[in-house]
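ERR on first pass: missing label on line 2. Operator R.T. fixed the label and resubmitted. Corrected input:
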Amino acid sequence: MTEHDNCQNMLTYLSDFVDGELNQELCLQLETHLSDCPDCSIVVDTLKKTIYLYQNNSKSLEQVPDDVRERLFRCLNLAEYIKPN
Amino acid sequence: MDTTNIIEYSLEEIKSGSRAEFAKLIDAHSHQIYRLALKMLNNPQDAEDVLQNTFLKAFQNINRFEGRSKISTWLYRIATNEALMIIRKQRPEVNISEETEEDNNDINSPRQFIDWCCLPESEMVSSESKIELDNAIQRLSDALRIVFILRDIEGLSIQETSKVLNLTETAVKTRLLRARLNLREQLSAYYSDRLMAGEMNNDRT
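pass 2 clean. output:
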């Protein structure tokens, strides 16, 4: 198998690997490839960072804005339950 | 990542018509639905329409919810359909539930190999960077964007995502990988520039 094949093979398992859902044997194979392939190492690290940044960014939307919530309750005829949440 | 606000409500009472309990269900899940709609449509007015229609339909159909999935998965499914209806009004050709040839093609190989993970956190989460994160996700096709939002932003499992979208788990996995790799390419291009700009500034001092 050429080095290019190994890199293509890595892509197949990339999502399962970053999600920690790859079985032990494939995980070991992939980690061995990563230790020899700086480019694939960078792909894995920057992919993990990409997902982290989106997850982190969404934390700023943990509540619906008050005015949006109020209109939602009114439109559902639930105005009597609009109290500070 | 389960971001359900910890508000308890009784499904039994909601099914019996309790409006007070339904109000609690709204406060437990509305942020998830609003966030999904905002990320999918990138327009606060459209997102608010999706939010209102989702809970209106949930209220009308709560007795049809059999409890075989999480209630959040059921709400995400209603909301996704509502969001797609808005998208189809603008672009009738969009059909994300149909498996396309694209799902079977090879995955594009990565092209950017600059390691930008060493950038300071403050640089990565600056307001300018957040705009780029939003722009990058909007450049994904609708089919890829909804999978990334459900799986990586809302934290649904592959199985839950496939139920919401009525797709096979294989199609969800393929689309997720495409979406993730596409976003990585876009962020790599952006943050590499930030990295080089930072190095040039350091060289000057």
